[in-house]
Specification:
With 177 residues, this protein is an alpha/beta fold. The protein has a single domain, classed as Glutaredoxin (3-Layer(aba) Sandwich). Strand 6 and strand 7 form a beta hairpin.
């Protein structure tokens, strides 16, 4: 096989594997209310510090529709999706949506990143300990970004591995509000 054909075949196989993984791991919950395979049924509880070093507990947002986003400042897809989350929070805050950004990064990096972004939702600092939390939320592969949407009863409705768009998030969130 010549070099060009070999590269083309490898690229096609990689794209196919990525497409299949995306379909398997980003499928929304079924209509029967079951969550995607490999995710916990209910959102795990947590306590983490925010940017002002105040301890925030997940129970603070009980009864709200939550979009929990695990991210890091060094992750390009994480950075790209944040403007969509700022818009979602603005558009749906009054209807009961709370977006929570959980940063798997150190505090200084997060402060340096968030200050100019004018983020309008809580940003919590998890650093390396966040890896266990993201796995508790069903992220078996440990990928970033990773987003979980939780209904008002605390049940995980949707998980998304990779960059999430405004349109996809809105489609999942609107029926829960």
């Amino acid at each position: 096989m010549n070099k060009t054909l070999t590269i083309t075949v490898i690229a096609a196989l990689g794209l196919s594997a990525g497409f299949i993984a995306n379909k398997l791991f980003n499928a929304p919950a079924s209509k029967s209310g079951q969550v995607t395979t490999g995710t916990p049924e209910y959102a795990p509880v947590f306590s983490l510090k925010d940017l002002e070093d105040k301890v925030r507990e997940s129970k603070e947002w009980q009864g709200k529709v939550l979009m929990v986003n695990f991210w890091a400042s060094w992750c390009p897809p994480c950075v790209r999706e944040i403007p969509a989350f700022i818009k979602l929070q603005k558009d749906y805050k009054d209807k009961g949506l709370v977006i929570i950004g959980i940063a798997l990064d150190n505090k200084q990096n997060i402060v340096d990143f968030t200050d100019p972004m004018d983020m309008n939702y809580p940003v919590l600092i998890a650093e390396k300990e966040g890896i266990a939390l993201t796995k508790a939320y069903g992220n078996r592969l440990g990928v970033l970004p990773y987003t979980v949407i939780v209904d008002r009863k605390g049940k995980i409705i949707y998980t998304h591995r990779s960059e999430l768009t405004y349109e996809v998030a809105e489609k999942v969130i609107k029926p829960l509000l």
